[in-house]
Amino acid sequence: MTRATDIEAVEAVNTAFYEAMERGDFEEISDLWLDDRRSTITCVHPGWPVLTGRGEVLRSYALIMANTEYIQFFLTDVQVSLAGDTALVTCTENILSGGPAEDGAELGPLVGQLVVATNVFRRTTGGWRIWSHHGSPVLTETGDEEGDDTAA
């Protein structure tokens, strides 16, 4: 495989990961994570402690999907780096999500959030698989801080 082909393959698996989350497809999420007894997978969701091992990581996705009525990811700033059979993807997750509906509404209130993510992939005989995911919230400024001269 060429470097360009590897980058395309990693980008495709990275995109498939977020699309599976949007659909709430737990089986696909499970298939996309590395399942290798010699390597422990890890995951850090924004505000969560480090989750280690397939059981903990996959349980966290089941919990998130069970408690999220709607989620959509708009990925920006996607960068892929390759080193042999390991790939690193950094991106910004522009997330729109909604919780359970209230008072007979079809969908709960929608909330936007920015998260920067690092996804580490390993090449396997079955293709690229997620080895580690780390998401960190982006704290946005309100524009009213002292010394901010953007205010009119």
Give me the secondary-structure category.
alpha+beta
Cα radius of gyration in angstroms:
18 Å
**Structural shape:** globular
In the predicted model, the low-confidence regions spanning at least 5 consecutive residues are none
The topology string of helices and strands comes to HHEEHEEEE
State the name of the first-level CATH class: Alpha Beta
Please give the largest β-sheet.
6 strands, mixed
- State the separation between the terminal residues, measured CA to CA: 55 Å
What is the annotated CATH architecture? Answer: Roll
Proportion of β residues?
A: 35-45%
The number of distinct helices, counting runs of at least 4 residues, comes to: 3
The tally of domains stands at 1
Q: Averaging pLDDT over every residue, what do you get?
A: 90
Instruction: Count the E strands.
Output: 6
Describe this structure in words.
- This protein is of the alpha+beta class and 152 residues long.
- It has one domain: Nuclear Transport Factor 2, Chain: A.
- Helix content is 27%, strand content 38%.
- The protein has 3 helices and 6 strands, in the order ααββαββββ.
- The protein has a 6-stranded mixed beta sheet.
- Helix 1 runs antiparallel to helix 2.
- The longest helix has 21 residues, at 3-23.
- The chain is globular.
- The mean pLDDT is 90.
